[in-house]
Amino acid sequence: MSVSIIVGAQWGDEGKGKIVDMLSEDIDIVARYQGGANAGHTVCIGDKNYVLHLIPSGIFHKHVKCVIGNGVVIDPVALMEEIKMVQSFGVKIDGRLFISHNAHLIMPYHKLLDNIREQGSQKIGTTGRGIGPAYIDKYMRTGIRVVDLLDRKVLREKLTRNIEEKNQILSKVYGKTEIDIEQLINEYQEFDKQIDPFVTDTSAYLNNALRKKKKVLAEGAQGALLDVDHGTYPYVTSSNPTSGGACTGLGIPPTSVKSIIGIVKAYSTRVGNGPFPTEQINETGETLRTIGHEFGATTGRPRRTGWLDMVSLKYSLMVNGINEIALTKLDVLDDFDNINICVAYKKDGKILKSFPTDVQTLESVEPVYRSCNGWKKKISDARKWKQLPKNTMKYVEMIEKLSGVKVSVVSVGARRDQTIVR
Ligand code: GDP
Ligand code: IMO
Ligand code: MG
Fold first, then answer.
1. Which ligand does the CA of 136 lie closest to?
2. What is the pLDDT of residues 225-255, one digit of tens each?
3. In angstroms, what CA-CA distances link 330 with 31, 376, 395?
4. Which atom of ligand 2 is nearest to the CA of 126?
5. Which CATH architecture has domain 2-100+199-261?
6. Structure pTM?
């Protein structure tokens, strides 16, 4: 039994795509367990960047099989586009991509409702990909699943029921135009033939593979601080990116999990709204954004930037059970004279004992920083730990000391080879 879970330890965009692709060399199956096309996972091969939203980041390794698990919400339009995109680069998908029959589908009305809600009084700053409304329907037990696409009669029945209800909401609550039922049914019926070859019972597939001692990498999307249960609610996504979500999102037992690898960016970013104690709305933040190319891989929005926050990170390591860290984007800090790490939060002059997940408290905390000396050298050519400048090593060791977790991988550039395994 050998499952390793890759989990974003902050607010997403930590470089999960890069690390999953890099680790896939030695892996049999990569399986996405939650989220949807709100994710944007970048894989950089040579001088080319590939952004994946639904297809697991192991797809560029021929020997790797890829699973989209039951916990993912699939937008068939986005999925088909993505399949075509990777195929256009010569990547073979047949016999390599497996889609759970139990995964829920994102419908055009989910995207509509997502965007309409964002114009209301509570602005989360969602990606507008219909994620929240699709998970609402899943838990409401009215959702449409992949398996329903394959039976035209069932699809018609379920879509009709859903659209009738959504049309009431769209027209009566929001004063919007109603959706044309026949047009949507026709459009979605076309997906059955396209999606059919990939659909399977992925839980059975994964459990069978695990019995045969295959190595599985469970790929999380988003990050722990965006988790609907453990993140900075309500400024979160609508699924469980934390490691616990991997078992429910794939239908594999917790006893199959061998390790949990937390992907940690060497500083912090956040897209969308919500508290961000170490945010730097100043020149430092601008520099991090420019050097780190911190613009959303899905929406292109500028990411908010700030210093590494050990308080939220320690909380994230705890709820995920992370036993090793892959530290990414260390090269982005090359030019700084001093680098700050937030080691505690203060509120009303007092040090807080734990990470507050209620936004009111989190918005009012004051970060307490420890300053580290910068290294003022280019590190993206380093391939071995010993090749790093002393102050870079000290920064990494400081993170290890403060977190109590080993940094086993250090990423010094976007490409596969720009990685140091310790
Ligand atoms: P993900 O959502 O966690 O997969 O991360 P994204 O792909 O959204 O954002 C990470 C960005 O940083 C991408 O553009 C990656 O190509 C890039 N990246 C990943 N690791 C490194 C690194 O170590 N150094 C630099 N400079 N860029 C990196
Ligand atoms: P990856 O997998 C960063 C954020 C959105 C918003 C909140 C809710 O690339 O790390 P949603 O559309 O999910 O309802 O939006 O979550 N968000 C992400 N931020 N990276 C992501 O994915 C994200 N997916 C969603 O910006 O604040
Ligand atoms: Mg991303």
1. 2
2. 999 999 999 999 999 999 999 999 999 999 9
3. 27, 12, 10
4. 15
5. 3-Layer(aba) Sandwich (3.40)
6. 0.98
